[in-house]
Amino acid sequence: MSILVTGGAGFIGSNFVLAWLGHTDEPVINLDKLTYAGHAGNLDSLQGDPRHQLVHGDIADTRLVARLLQAHRPRAVLNFAAESHVDRAIRGPDAFIQTNVTGTFQLLEAVRLYWQALDEPARKGFRYVQISTDEVYGSLDPQAPAFAEGGPYRPNNPYSASKAAGDHLVRAYLHTYGLPVLTTHCPNNYGPRQFPEKLIPLLIHQALAGKPLPLYGDGSHVRDWLYVDDHCAGVRRVLQAGEPGQVYHIGASQERSNLQVAQAVCTLLDAWRPRSDGRPHGDLITFVQDRPGHDRRYAIDAGKIRRQLGWQPEHAFDVGLHATVQWYLDHPQWVASVAGGAYRHWLQTQYAP
Question: Which residues lie across from 247 on neighbouring strands?
């Protein structure tokens, strides 16, 4: 038995693969395009491990996916592959449509043909898991209840629209072909190995360099924050016990504004890496022009997965943030390996005054 993981060299995907092989000896075939956010170094600890095979390729390459399915005969496919940064989607939506829509379609087609050719026991036990986002639901008013499964999709930017389109394709393959799919939605993840364009690693990276810590607008945009290990545990539980055709929210119910997150990061850095001039890192917080169509609040209700599958997050936000900041402080070589010239150019372009 084995599983095929797509996007398994990225932030969430690599953490999932590492945790999977920490819990079981079931092999992982890991297909990743290795774009800027997919980093083979995330998986260095698995070098020489016969349980893991990293394949450089695109989920939109149907022939490659078909060859991998036929060669390894996985019992499940978990699709973590995605373009996921809203800022990049606003500047260049093409890549998001290619990966999150066209790529998902091509992957589903290859999986459908493979699944339909399986014998009855294998076909009955097979699962396809789509990893999605809370952003497909759009923005919530400050006092509105969190989104529950089955709520209407109202994406407000090219990234969330592309993920919504992929989700609809997954649902269509269930109802049209009977493909046994499951879909999970998560809020903002944080933790080790996250590319430093996302908020928390960006704050750490900039603060250590003594540079401004950019926050959009007034910093009051609110997100639920989920530690990546908890997300991975939720996905494993869905694969293990989820009912095909169902949607599960994997959320932490730990809402914080971007400003609150920045202040918490700065407090930790003040204690662990004080500035040479003695001033608090919080002095570096800088408000920049808000991005177009910026959703004010996201929140999802994770009651279903807790009731039906017995999953719940293990990390309070403060605990997870401590572990995250410490990881980045302990791994400066990882940051240096991913934050090259293209990354620096991106920062200068995106957060120019």
Answer: 183
Q: What angle do CA 312, 318, 322 make, to 5 degrees?
A: 110
Give the C-alpha distances (Å, rounded to integers) separating 235 from 126, 149, 238, 316, 344. 15, 16, 5, 18, 33
Instruction: Say how far apart CA 39 and CA 170 lie, in whole Å.
Output: 27
Q: Distance of alpha carbon 309 from its chain centroid, rounded?
A: 21
Entry pTM: 0.95
Q: Tell me if 29 sits within 8 A of 37, measured CB to CB.
A: no
Name the DSSP letter for residue 226.
Answer: E
Q: Which residue has the tokens 């908890």?
A: 230
Which residues are annotated as catalytic?
A: 134-135, 159
Per residue, the 3-state secondary structure of 114-153, as one string, reads: HHHCCCHHHHHHCEEEEEEEHHHHCCCCCCCCCECCCCCC
- Reported as a single tens digit per residue, the pLDDT across 12-71 is 999 999 999 999 999 999 999 998 888 899 999 999 999 999 999 999 999 999 999 999
Tell me if 280 sits within 8 A of 266, measured CB to CB: yes
Instruction: Name the nearest CA neighbour of 254 among 199, 203, 302.
Output: 302
Name the nearest CA neighbour of 302 among 313, 290, 286: 313
Tell me the C-alpha distance between 315 and 235, whole Å. 16
Buried residues in 170-199 as b, exposed as e (16+ CB within 10 A): beebbeebebbbbbbbbbbbbbbbbbbbbb
The pLDDT tens digits for 294-344 are 999 999 999 999 999 999 999 999 999 999 999 999 999 998 888 775 666
> Could you write out the DSSP letters of every residue in 143-185?
TSPPB-TTPPP---SHHHHHHHHHHHHHHHHHHHH---EEEEE
CB proximity list for 353: less than 8 A, separation 6 or greater: 288
Indicate the helix (H) or strand (E) that contains 89: helix 86-91
Phi and psi dihedrals of 124, rounded to 5?
A: -70, -35
